[in-house]
Design a protein that fits this description.
It is built from 4 helices and 7 strands; from the N terminus they run H-H-E-E-E-E-E-E-H-E-H. The protein is α+β, with helices and mostly antiparallel strands.
Length: 194
């Protein structure tokens, strides 16, 4: 009887140890999935490299929030020398946001945009950054709301904002094997028979 009880106790301890090991493995996997910032391509260094490769200055990265409009991440890119552009879309139309350090005055201030339908663009100036908002199929009230919501992008938003920007290539450029020596221009002479 003691021997049978000892076997049951040993089997129970083995099952408890195996379950504990399984729980530990699951915890490690879950934590690994949560914390992979740099290895998944969404970490700070990756975002900074994408921005630098595209030519976008961090202090010119501004966003807005407009009810019913979503950021089209594939539209995010460089504008001018070092500014940023992004499109916010809805079934009703599009709001294009562009930033620059250049002088303002391209459009009226968004807060003073009138409802007469004449203005399809407006501007916000914040800390020396000029944010131009251009509407396509949107009314003045929507542009005013977009202008009122303009703000610098938070660090936590950058990974999503720049997720579609190309990543810088690793190492040296790829050598093409089909270009001839000399000036590198392909030889377009006709071959035999024409």
């Amino acid at each position: 009887m003691n021997r049978a009880r000892g076997c049951r106790d040993r089997d129970r301890r083995g099952a408890v140890a195996a379950a504990g090991g399984l729980v530990g493995a699951l915890v490690v996997l879950a934590l690994g999935a949560c914390g992979g910032g740099g290895t998944t391509g969404t970490g700070g260094a990756d975002v900074a490299a994408r921005m630098q490769y595209a030519g976008i200055a961090r202090d010119l990265v501004y966003v807005t929030d407009v009810d019913g409009f979503d950021l089209a991440v594939q539209s995010v890119g460089v504008s001018g020398d070092e500014g940023m552009s992004a499109a916010y879309v809805s079934p009703a139309g599009t709001v294009l946001l562009r930033t620059s350090r250049g002088a303002g005055g391209q459009a009226p201030a968004c807060a003073q945009l009138e409802d007469d339908g004449a203005g399809a663009s407006c501007e916000v100036v914040a800390d020396g950054v000029h944010v131009l908002l251009e509407g396509d199929g949107v009314d003045a009230a929507t542009l005013r709301a977009a202008g009122a919501a303009v703000r610098p992008a938070r660090d936590g938003e950058l990974a999503t904002l720049f997720s579609e920007l190309p990543t810088p290539p690793d190492g040296e450029p790829v050598e093409r094997g089909d270009l001839p020596e000399g000036d590198g221009a392909p030889d377009n002479d006709p071959g035999p028979g024409g």
